[in-house]
Amino acid sequence: MNSQLPRLLKAHWQNMASALTITGDLKAMGCRIALDDFGTGYSSLYHLKSLPFDELKVDQSFVGSMTTERESRKIVAAVVGLGQSLGLSTVAEGVETPEQADMVLRLGCDMGQGWHYGKPAPAEELPSMIELRTRSAISCASHEGDGISLTCREGLPSQRLAQLQAVYDGAPVGLGFLDRNLKYININRRLAEMHNLSIEEHYGKTIAEVIPELYPIIEPHVKEALNGQGISDLEIREPGCQAHDQRTFLVSYQPAFDEAGEVMGVSCAVKDFTARKSAEDKLRQYERLVEGLDEMVAVVDRKHRYVFTNRAFHEVFAAGNQRIEGRLIPEFVNMDIFEMVMMPKLDECFSGKSVLFRLEYNLPGIGMRELSVSYSPIEVSGVVETVACVLRDITEMKRIEVVETDWQKRIELAECAGLRIGLWDWDIQANTVVWSDESYRQWGFTRDTFSSKVAEAVPRIHPADRANVESAIQKIMSRATDEYAAQYRVLRPDGSVCWIDARGVMMGDSSERMIGIGVDITDHMETQDPSALEPLLLSFSNMQGPS
Prior knowledge:
Shape: elongated
Strand order of the largest sheet: 1-2-3-4-5
Distance between the termini: 105 Å
Strand content: 15-25%
Helix content: 25-40%
Number of helices: 19
Radius of gyration: 45 Å
């Protein structure tokens, strides 16, 4: 026998021993016992604890008002939760509308009864009513609309809660939940560690108490979530720390709604973004550095596609505003050179080796140039997926090497002719100078007694000649002239005087380095015949520094 008694006779409630005897006998007969109208009248927690009930029925007075009254919803949710925790089936009484049916189902109620499911009807009409109800339920369950079908649950709320708690605790991000007073009522271990507190130390405290230094920054966003407007992927940087010690967080604050759509609290998700942010900052610095290089830089993948090019590369190889990234190398480079030279060396680099070679290439709009090309493997997680390609135009450098070789030969010839020529290289920014052995002799220093600081050498210039030297330096520094030229006397420690005819040029476009020569013209000054030096000094003036 498996009948169901909706209620026990109220007279037996006053005699618990009698009620236990009766319910025991009924259970033995196969009956299921339900506690009716729970929350009102004679239905109490005491009876629920004392008697062997199978079902718990939520009183219709709460069900009928639950879609309009928050208090009723909370009572229904609490009763359903209580029944589930005790292992009882739960039944909602008085379900009359689809909204009520959906709500009790979402709250985890096992069954509902009421006119929504059917009104009293003659016995002969029941089969057709049941068939219609069955078809409707199947249609609803198979409907693919927005959201989750309420007729297809994956388990009781208690089971889903346990599943969610496991996900919550094991999540790789910090998670927490704030009530409407912004107090922590739940938090996982990862978020607690970010706050340098235990989980227990969070309970009962507001977010302002837990992270006072960050709260002024996040307060408006948390309050927006309380008003129903969530925010995702908000980047927050920890204030009051040195830049290298600052932590960066990516946070989301989302409102949590109850069954009627009212905000019941705020869900917090926090990810420590510091390492990634630092990597992004370094990447941006690297990109700015690469963008400013005169060398042509590109990164290519294993399919020989460009994934990155800097300004210099784009200016040479791209026509107008043509996009290079994502396109194949042969679209911009001579196919024969690509297949015969570049591709084999790229394949070698993808095997993990750095490659350096020289290449003569006809650059678009420039002409035939000599390039120094380096391929460097970019390894990520032990795998080389991309290669950094750096192209340096060394045409001018090669030409300068020829000029410098020619100039060195001229100096050697001059020395053979009896001229004493010292070489110097002045780092203007550091205000230090590198001398040849002859320059040390001219100034009366040795390598042990001179620290390379220009300030140590200046006092040895004859006071009457210093203004002439300073004027010559100012002219070349201001670009009023292309050449530094000055004649001056050096007062050496042994009391002797050395006349020097100095000539110099700036290196490149900067004002940071000057190179030059110093010719000992003492003998010529004593004979008053410095004109003999003009051919040598003129040849130095015609020498061009690297551009």
